[in-house]
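Repro:
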Amino acid sequence: MRVVSNTTPLLGLSFIGRIDLLQRLFGEIIIPAAVYDEIVVQGANRIGSDEVTKGIGSGWIHVENVAPSAMLSMLKVDLDKGEAEAMALAIARQADLLLLDERRARAKAQILKLNVTGTIGVLLLAREKDLEIDLPLMLEKLKVQGFRIGDSLIKRILAEKP
């Protein structure tokens, strides 16, 4: 399964100490150079930097450059560089899944017929696959860290049966 990730799912899962779920669920993921730059270079010494660096060192996170293209240029009009590169890379690599949280970017990805999920989707997939997770605690930690998730959505998620 080819999975491409944008910045926020990597950071969100790092915040809650569960970036390992990506490896356990998907084996490996691909990130564009802009996402690497955002997390590891610009975000040095912040949450996510060490986790992504270790994932790259272990070989389950792969960084790829995105070739300039008309598609990439078009995406950069409305999206930030990481989102645009993640989407262009997902298209170029014919990814099975794109990990993306931002609402505007997700809407664009769906127009482009990309299969998208985000941080919460990863947690729900982990629960569905019977990976050991404390979903209520993880959702609360995300919320405390500033992740945009309302109480009503948390209640609805926790009420759903795995």
